[in-house]
Amino acid sequence: MTGLILAFAVPLAANASLILGVIPQGAVVAGQPVILSVALSGLGNQQPPSLGAYDLQFWYNPMILGSPNVLFGDPVLGDQLALTVPAITCSGAVPACSSSTPTQPGPNLTSIEVTETSLDSPTALDSTQPGGFTLFTIGFQTLQAGTSQLALSDVLLSDSGGAPLTPNQINGTSLTVTSGSAIPEPNAGLLALSGMTVLLAWRRFRSKITG
Q1: pTM greater than 0.70
Q2: Which residue segment(s) compose the domain that 11 sits in?
Q3: Cβ distance 137 to 177 under 8 Å?
Q4: What are the tens digits of pLDDT across the range 25-72?
């Protein structure tokens, strides 16, 4: 199912405007779900080049993030690789989609492979796809406080005709998960005692002045 994009074996010239990356996300509280997005920009915007297929590894810290769930397509625009017919999709840990060994970008990380191949015609892809869109979203359950690196590796892209595309930039990011501990509210009794102390001090000060 990934043959179209796994067949590239020659060096590729970079498209100077093509950028693939994980969209930065603000801090989240441990125990809460989080949804992350991977997006591509710099395509032709209803003209070539358009995206026909992709295959990549998404890396994260499994001590911080768990239970990954991939949803293909742009949440607003829909799946731009499934415009007229469903695409061929696959996601999971190796060897769910391929038998290749991924390149680990850092310590304490694990990966999920995400791949999609369009069955739309080149004409449909070239004339319909916008210049940039979300390839997929991936949901996690946050497990504990900490910071997880989020990285992409082993990226393969092809255009509507199967020709290779190489992004000029592949951007990762990180996600901070906080403990979510609430700041304790002041004790009502302590507040009353503090107020009485200030009042008594003021009365003593005033009596010295008037006495």
Answers
A1: yes
A2: 3-185
A3: no
A4: 999 999 999 999 999 999 999 999 999 999 999 999 999 999 999 999
Distance CA 110, CA 66 (A): 11
Residue 201 within any structural domain of the chain: no
What value does the mean pLDDT take over residues 159-167?
Answer: 96
In angstroms, the CA 171 to CA 49 distance is 21
Cβ-in-10-Å burial (0-12, 13-18, 19+) of 23 comes to middle
Measured distance CA(161)–CA(171) in Å, rounded: 25
Burial (CB < 10 A; 0-12, 13-18, 19+), residue 30, is: middle
Q: How many domains would you assign to the chain?
A: 1
pLDDT digits (tens, 9 = 90+) for 198-211: 344 444 434 544 45
E strands present in the chain: 14-22, 28-29, 33-41, 51-60, 65-72, 88-92, 110-117, 132-142, 146-159, 164-171, 173-178
CATH number at residue 90: 2.60.40.680
Alpha-carbon gap, residue 149 to 175, rounded angstroms = 7
